[in-house]
Every structure is written in C-alpha cells, then in structure tokens.
Amino acid sequence: MDTHVKNYKILIVEDELPLLKVLTDKFTAEGFTVIQAKDGSEGLAVALKEHPDLILLDIIMPVMDGMTMLKKLREDNWGQNAPVVMLTNLSDSKNVSDAIASGIGDFLVKSDWTLEDLLTKVKSRLGLSKKIGQYK
Amino acid sequence: MKPQVPNDFYKTLFERVLDGLAYCQMIFDKQGNPVDFVYLRVNKNFAKLTGLKDVVGKKVTEVIPGISTSNPELFEIYGRVSRTGKSEEFETYVEPLSIWLFISVYSPKKGFFVALFHNITERKRIEKNLEDAKKAAQNVLEDLQVEKEKLAESIAKDEALLASIGNGVIATDQDDKVVVINKAAEDLLGFTNEEIVGKSFVQAISLRDAEGNIIPDAQQPIRLALISGKTTTTTTTLVRKDGAKVPVAIIVTPFKLNDKIIGAIAVFRDITKEKEIDKAKTEFVSLASHQLRTPLSTINWYLEMLLAEDKTKLSDEQKEYAKEAAAASKRMAELVNALLNVSRIEMGTFTVEPEPINIAEAVKAVILEFEHKISEKKLVVSQVYDPSLSKIMTDPKLLTIICQNLLENAVHYTPEGGKIKVSLKRKGSDILITVVDSGIGIPKIQQPMMFGKLFRADNARKKDNEGTGLGLYITKAILDHSGGKIWFESEENKGTTFYVTLPLEEMRKKEGTKPLSDT
What we know:
Chain A is an alpha/beta fold. Chain A is built from five helices and five strands, in the order E-H-E-H-E-H-E-H-E-H.
C-alpha cells in the first residue's frame, strides 16, 4: 500500500453498480479515500461539495451523462481545473474530440484496461509516481 | 361610209392567221351522234401546227387514226357547236399528234363548224413544270412540317424526361456557365431556372465540406471534371438559397464533342435519408458494443480482483479456473473490438485522418507493447529501420492497428526461442514494412483465404482458440482504403513473412464518422 496516496480523494462516478463497487474496492485497497456517485447529477453535486483530487467519470449514465456533467463542472471556479479521467465503453470520435476540447486528455475504454493499469494511470495523473505534491 | 374591205382581205386573213384554222362539215350517224367530220378547208398554219398535210376532203378518222378513241370530246363538242350554233372553246391533248391545243369553235351554218387551233403544248409544259415544282415544294414543306413536328415532339419528350428525372441535373458549358437545370435541381437548390442559367456554377451554387467550409474553387467537382476530363464522384453539403444545408452525392461527367470537352453534367442526389440510415446503423453498432463491453469489464475486473494475490487466497485449482475465465473474457473483449472495426469498415464509416508521423517510432512503440510476451517466449526480435525515413503522412491509429496485427501474429504463432525481424524501408513511392517470423507458417492450400473474415488456418486453430480471425481482414481493409497493400510468403513450420506498403505521399484521406479502435 502506497502511503503517498493516503491523503488523496478520488470521486468515482459510475452508474453500473458492480463496476462502481470493484473500482471503489481497488482504489480503497490502494489507500485512496473513495467517494461515489451513481449518475452525473449526483456526481456534480458531490464534486462541487467535496473537491476530490481526481474524478473517474463514466459517460453513459442516466439523469445526467458524463459529458454534460463535465461541461457543468468546467463552469465552476474550482471545477475548471479538476483532473478528470473519462472511463467509458464507447469508442466514439465525437466524444473523444469533445473530451479533448474539454481538456481531459485521458479517455479510457474500460474493457481494454486492467484495474492495475488504471491505478498506475491515476497515480501518474496525480503526480504520485514522481512524488510531486497535490495535483492542481 | 363603211371602209371597203378588199376581197382578198379575208383570204389573206385566213392564210396568215397564226393559229391553225379548219372549216369542216360534221358527220352524224343514224342516231344523230357526231361521229366524224370532213376537212373542207384548212389554212397553212393548220399543217404547220398539226403536222397534217393534204387533209382537205378527207375525214378526220382517216387523217388521224385513233382520234375517236383518244379524243372523243372533239366529236362531242364539234357536234354540239355545229348543231346548236353556240360557240365553244376548250383545251385538249391530242394524243396521236402529241400536242396540246386550245380550240375555239363556231358554227357558220348548221352542220358545219370552224375550228381555230392554238398550239399550247409549250404553255402546258411550262404549266406542268410549275405544277410539278409547286408539288415538289409542297412535299418539301410537308416533309419539313413533319420533321418540325418530330423535333418538337422529341424536344418535348426530352424536356419531360429531364423534368421527371428525380435527381437534380445541371449542365454547364466548358466555362462552367450553367446551360440547363431541371426541375428536380431547382427544387433541391431552391433557385429557379432564371436565377441560375447563364451564371457560373461554382459561384451560384454553394458547396461545403464536412467542416462547413466552402470548397475551394479548384476542388469543386465541376472544375475537376472539366479540367481532368474524368468523371468525379463526391459527397458534400449543398447550401440552398434559403440557407438550409442538404447532404448530397454529386456525380459530374464531362461531355465531349469530337474529343473536345464542351461541358459537364452534374447529377445531384439528396442523401439525407441515406445519411440518416448510416447514422442510425453507426449508433446502433456503437450502442451494441457499449452494451457488450459493460458486462465484459465487470467480468475482467472482478476476476482481476479475485486473482490479486494479497487479497484473496485461492487454491491453485481455483486460480486456474479464474485464469481461464479471465483469458476467455479478454478474448471476448478483443472480439468485440474487432467486430466494431469490421462493422465500421463494412459500412464505410471509418475515418482516415493522416498527420505527419515518425513511422519508425510508431513501429517501435507497438513492439514495446508486446515486450512482456516477447520476453516470456524468449523470442529474438531484430529491427532494421531505413534512417532516411522519418515522417510520413499517415493516420496514427490505423498505422498502430496494422502494426499491432502483424506483430501480434508474429509473436503469437512463433514458438519459444523463435526469431522475428521487423524492417522498414523505402520502396519506390511507398514505405515497405516487413515482418519475418520463424513461426508455424500458413499451409499453402489455405493461403488464399487468409484475408477472409473470421478465417483461421487449421494449424493456427490447432494451436489455440485465441485468434479472432478478423485481424488480417481488418488490416487489409484499412490498407485498401488508404492506398496501401499487404501480401505474404509462408511455408508451414518454417515461417512467414508479411509485407505491407503504405504510400509515402499521403494516406488517402477518407471522410467517415468514426475512427477504428485499436487494442
């Protein structure tokens, strides 16, 4: 367990409950504090309240989808810089270009990534592998 | 006092009168029908006119044999005149003499008549010629009229044809000025005939590319067709007069007269419906693959957690079972990716977006992806790159898919300790990628089928169940669409060499809606 991660808060926004659970388990096991949301609307509220260090965001969700939540998030002062990793099972050019336009950079197809690789990705996004301080 | 007329006045008159003169006595039969007459006196010109000599005292039937048959009217008229005393005049063609005569007849006393002949053969000839000419002219006029009507009908038919063609048709001359526009084109464009005819096509009709930018003049389909002399097919967006945008397919064909290009014809088809259907199909496939991948992700991740050593203590057997499940699930995920690509290829909706790529770096990156497998199988991989090759214009995603496919096959089908050689060199105007392996090879009989969908050679299937049978199909399809080629040489149990060429200049840009997904 990487002690560096103890202070980091990860928000996972995912409507598929089994996936939400296993992701939570993985990141919790690694030492992260994990907060959850089941759809974009809940996710937005939680994000703006809790100011997580990184958001894992699904796209296809009921009530409010991931792209809409992202757009709204970016309208917030804090939210415009919040690190976001899009997790999806769509491989769709429009979404990718929208994501790039929103400054995300990471757009991962869930079925192509192992949890371990995902973890590595998140840690590198947070600058943890370089032991740099809190990611801004 | 009446002037004295000399005695020989009448004689001279008789002799000198230009017409032929004959003084005759009528002969009637028992029933009183006029059947003959006797020449009593004739003048000099009579002979001249008729060609008859020494007729005095003779019957006409003797002098002109066949006259009663050929000219019965003579007898009828002479008979009537000599009987009634009423003068008559008439024209007749005397066949035995081959002359037309104008005859005036009067009767000085009953039973007798005097006939004055005027040769009108010449006049008749002229009249006939005139008549013939008139008839000929009339015929010509009639023929002309018929032709005019035929032409009018033909034109009407063509117009009806043009009007009823469902697709918009616009024809221009060699300078791109519109000469014809049919109703369907008017409807499609929102312009009327009057507003477009005579104007430059390129200026009057606004075409835009996928990003909404106006297509530059030189790339307008009409210009391309007029300059190159070749048929150009393209899909583009048309902007109507009212500003609405319509997706259209345009085929422009130059037309030639005596080998010289004198214009072009553009046929437009509104493809809104087709695009909608394509969009629906694409969305369906995307949604379907999304739905398939969600449970796959669940399976993969839970198995991953299950197999994580520190958290769960599994017996060796349980671990084996979990590993098998994980492997199968991974295969399924690859299959879904491959099927998604195949459907995009088949629907022609995948994009080719070239950008400058350092191809050697790209190939090296792919080899790196297989590092784990390579070291596990103790494969020896050598790489040879032509140093002069740096950047080429190609779509990085597609290049990755191609390289992944070639490397995947080489690594997968080469047994432990085998050799793989990857080289990159220039071949004419192309780049040649070669991947040589010392693997299981491809049986000769099955070589022709290697690029078929879902095909796996027997020896491959014997080895394991892992391949999708779609890799080479997808790779070839990508190359077909972007101007590249793929072929191979192989011998069973010896090894296989795959060759791929990519155009150095530029991968042909292809408009589509979705990129293919890499693994």
